[in-house]
Structure formats: C-alpha cells, structure tokens
Amino acid sequence: MKSEYIVEARELCKSFGSFQALKKINLQVKRGEIYGLIGDNGAGKTTFLKLLAGQSYLTEGELLLFGTSDPVSQNRQRKRMGVLIEEPGFYSQLTVEKNLEYYRIQKGIPGKEAVERALEFTKLTDVRKKMGKQLSLGMRQRLGLAIALLGEPELLLLDEPINGLDPSGIIEMRQLFDKLSREKNITILISSHILSELEQVADVYGFLDQGILMEQIGREELQEKCSDYIEIRVSDPQKYCVLLERELPGEKYQVRPDGAVRILQPGEGADFYGRIAGRQWIGIYELEQRKTSLEQYFLKLKEESRAKFAVK
Fold it and tell me: What is the pTM assigned to this prediction?
C-alpha cells in the first residue's frame, strides 16, 4: 500500500559525540504539501535535511523516505529528490547554462529541454551565459534551486532558499513554490528562520528548538491560534467578565496575569466590547484589536518548551 507520507521520522535522534543535535523527532510530510521547518540557527533544521539527503546518518530511531526505511533502497529513492542545502554548489568558472548541463548529465536526466525548463522556472534565462562567479547572492540561490529542480523531482529539500533575494525575488520564489506544489504536486520541505515568508507558503509547520520538535501543526489550526483577538484593560476585570458572559454567552476569553481580558476570536467589533464596560461604569484603560504573529507564536512555544525541559 502506497503511503500518504513521503517523509516520516519516528523517535529520530542524531548525535555528534556527546552533543545531541536532534532529540526523538516525530514528523510526517504528506505528498504534495509544503512543509515549513521553523527554528533558529542551530536548532537542528539543516541536520534533519542532511539526514533526508543522505549526507548524514541517524544515531537512533527510524527514518522512512518514500515509504522505505532500508538504507540501500533509500539511496535509490533519493534520485526522486532535489536538494539545496546550505550554500548552492556549482562551478564558478562555468556559465549558468553549462552548470545546469553538467548536473543534468551527472544526474542521468535525458533531454536538454530539462535545462530549459529549469532556467525558465527560476527566471534565469536572461543570465544563462553569465559565469557562476559573476552571480549575485540572490542569483546564486536561484541557480542552486534550478539545479535542484532538474528532472522535476517529487520531493524538494530547501535550506533557507530565499537567503539573499531582494523583495521582488522573494515574491517570485514564493509564487514558484506554490506553482510547483499545486500544479506539479511536488512535495517541498523548506527550512527557514524568516517566519513571515513561511507563513505565506506552508501548509504544515514544524517548530524546532535545540533539537526538539516542539509542535507540528497545520495551516488552518495555526491561523485559528493566531487569529485576531481583542485585549481590554478595565478597572474591574471580574465584573467585566460577568457582563461579557451575560451579553455574549459562549464567548471565549482569558484573564491575563496582568489583569487584561483577552477575547479570543471575537464575534463583534472592538467598540462593542467597550460599550459593555461603559454601560456599567467600568473604567476602560486600554482597548486594542491585535493578532498573534508567527514570530510571537514561535517565541511562546520556545518559552514553554524550555521551561518544561528545565523542570525535568
């Protein structure tokens, strides 16, 4: 039976001597989705991608790639992958076109049209005759991605793929990822610390910190957790909550440690929540509609995770 997952990690650990880079990772990447692996530098993102690419080997646990955990079979399956990890690898003395032709032959991909498709996909056609050493950092990233896309792989592993791109290049890359996923059903695993960009492209998010996968969450659930909320500071929070429950039964809210009342997924506009207080002569010190950013959510997860493991 064909697995719905292209990548599965089960209690996966990776150590370098006494240093544990990955700690009991359990992670699944479904076919056709864009998976965003989020974490600070040193969190273990690149280590995990290198395990998938066969550039490193796990210490404990199990890794399934295209449904197989057998190392020999996995090496064969890696022909179905495109990889861009850390610095793009190419020859500085060759042109963009010649670099792609070299890697096409090395990968055993028939037909020179594969090079044309890669150039077109990554918008490198106009610089095809430019030498590798003449490329800007952004163009180097594009060439690395073009090499990874040769042969239209089923799985793309991309480590910080938008590094060095200008705003226009970032938008184009975002559109490319969406096109590859939606039109060609290519599964993409992207690692990045630029959370605002992953927020716009990923279907699923995995949050890594100090080698620990803190959470794996789908886009819809994350959006729900990060949705708009209203925060109101009043002179009598207890009385205000009683009024809130009477006026809007079932409304979800929290009383924060500082006494502020946070209304989650508000069903009314901010003014309505102010009027509830005003009618009962409850003083309003602050009333603001806010949204939790992906950065704030990640920082909160880190704080909770580190507190949990510090206790242990």
Answer: 0.81
